[in-house]
């Protein structure tokens, strides 16, 4: 039953990473503008982050879909997501008017178009799911389950 | 009794066997865990490398490229006036102010749609255009600064009387927003290709001769209350392209806007 919840969390997050990464990868110029708008990183770093983030997201999505190294991937996902939350929060605190560019888009927007609380709330929701997988990475249909049979299962076989 | 002992021994052996199996499985499981960790790290690293390769490949299309020349009429009068360029006869009844940024995609579309019509009116002598080259999107090229470099170069081209071709060429082969623009050497090469041979042009592009007046002009224009437009949702602001005549914004929703402008003024 608990494995079921974990499975839903894992596949849900896989879908989120896939979609957000694919949209960004489809328009890398826009990704650059989005990262640039946070006004947080030095120029050369902006290019690298804008280039890497979409593909890291796709990779995390792929790994979650396979259920490979679920706990480690959930930790990495949470690190990335926490980075997003911090970036959005600082933009909000500094009074920048930007779109987070979380699912494509991004860049400057008018003040009425900002949606910082919703964006942060959504990301915290994702963080909760990642937290679940960090605490309890066991899920159905995962490569982890297939590659690392638990010794406990073997012990049961020994009983007569 | 004997049966019980036998049973106990058998049980012990079974347990030992079980432990051995468990230990073996645990070793295998640990090894698999290491393999999994390595696999995850490799996948993520591959993603980063892929991203950087793809991005560099896509964004640096303009690198080493020769900006193609887009010819424009050489017959028109060109005069630089501060950070603006006046194209056309002084006697023209209408002076159309055009506010644009060489990186702005909407400006590129505007030029694509109306440049021919505008040039015709300018040659006829019914319209004179005052081009304002702004730096609204100066940080939106990678590396930043294309808006400023191109605006400065265009003013220098105006000093040489070659503004129309320079302007038309840059819009025709407009770099993408968020990608690499053209560097100074490419701008200088374009100038040479359209017939600017004075060393003052190349020097001016390199040193950013008009950078300061371009930036000052942008600050002024962006704050001008007459040039603020509605972007919907109750938001007002300055954007490019903006067209104005006598300080009043001209809307281009109507495809006939240019004809109407000249007929209004003459009729």
Structural write-up:
The complex is a heterodimer of chains A (160) and B (267). Chain A is mostly helical and 160 residues long. Chain A has one domain (2-147). Chain A is built from seven helices and two strands. In chain A, strands 1-2 form a two-stranded antiparallel ribbon. In chain A, a hairpin with a 7-residue loop joins strand 1 and strand 2. In chain A, helix 1 (2-26) runs antiparallel to helix 3 (43-66), helix 2 (28-37) packs across helix 3 (43-66) and helix 3 packs antiparallel against helix 4. The longest helix of chain A has 25 residues, at 2-26. Chain A is elongated and about 50 Å long. Chain B is an alpha+beta fold and 267 residues long. Chain B has two domains: 1-59; 78-266, Glutaredoxin (3-Layer(aba) Sandwich). Chain B is built from eight helices and eight strands, in the order H-E-E-E-H-E-H-H-H-H-H-E-E-E-E-H. Chain B has helices at residues 2-59, 105-124, 146-159, 163-172, 184-193, 199-207, 211-223, 257-266, and strands at residues 78-81, 84-87, 94-100, 127-133, 229-230, 236-237, 242-245, 248-249. In chain B, the strands form two sheets. A six-stranded mixed sheet of chain B has the order 1-2-4-3-7-8, with helices on both faces. Chain B has a two-stranded antiparallel ribbon with strand order 5-6. In chain B, a hairpin with a 5-residue loop joins strand 5 and strand 6. In chain B, helix 3 packs antiparallel against helix 4 (163-172). The longest helix of chain B has 58 residues, at 2-59. The termini of chain B are far apart. The relative contact order of chain B is 0.14. The mean pLDDT of chain B is 92.
